[in-house]
Amino acid sequence: MPVFGDLEQAVMDVLWERPTALSVRDVQAALADERALAYTTVMTVMDRLAKKGQLLRELDGRAWRYSPAQSWVQLVSDEIVALLDTGTAEQRRAVLEQVRQRVC
């Protein structure tokens, strides 16, 4: 899974929780209870996440609106599959069995 920094993770969490795209100001307001962040700080983080392909953005008037490029479930499952693809069939079975025991 892409390793997000603390603020990147907080931004992604806000966006994953919302059904629609949000502006930088919307995300800044959602994070305001936890931390006081400058608008430009949130804007920079979101711009970088968009450049990394983690966020999609669309122009709405004069402001960008951002949404996750993929859901949390999609992101995590893609990363798990990528990790499993590095092992042999026997290793994959062993990992899946261990996960099954821990999760179920």
Quick recap:
This protein is an alpha+beta fold and 104 residues long. The protein is built from five helices and three strands; from the N terminus they run αβααββαα. It has two domains: 6-68, Winged helix-like DNA-binding domain superfamily/Winged helix DNA-binding domain (Arc Repressor Mutant, subunit A); 72-103, no CATH class.
Descriptive notes:
The chain is of the alpha+beta class and 104 residues long. The protein folds into 2 domains: 6-68, Arc Repressor Mutant, subunit A (Orthogonal Bundle); 72-103, no CATH class. Helices cover 59% and strands 13% of the residues. The chain is built from 5 helices and 3 strands, in the order H-E-H-H-E-E-H-H. The protein has helices at 6-17, 24-31, 39-51, 72-84, 89-103; strands at 22-23, 55-60, 63-68. Strands 1-3-2 form a 3-stranded antiparallel β-sheet. Strand 2 (55-60) and strand 3 form a beta hairpin. Helix 2 crosses helix 3. The longest helix is centred in the last third of the chain and has 15 residues, at 89-103. It is elongated and about 55 Å long.
Q: What is the topology, as strand order, of the major beta sheet?
A: 1-3-2
Strand content range? 5-15%
Sheet bearing the most strands, described? Answer: 3 strands, antiparallel
Total of DSSP H or I helical runs spanning 4+ residues: 5
Topology readout:
Elements: H1 6-17, E1 22-23, H2 24-31, H3 39-51, E2 55-60, E3 63-68, H4 72-84, H5 89-103
Antiparallel strand pairs: 1-3, 2-3
Annotation keywords:
alpha+beta; elongated; single chain; Arc Repressor Mutant, subunit A; 104 residues
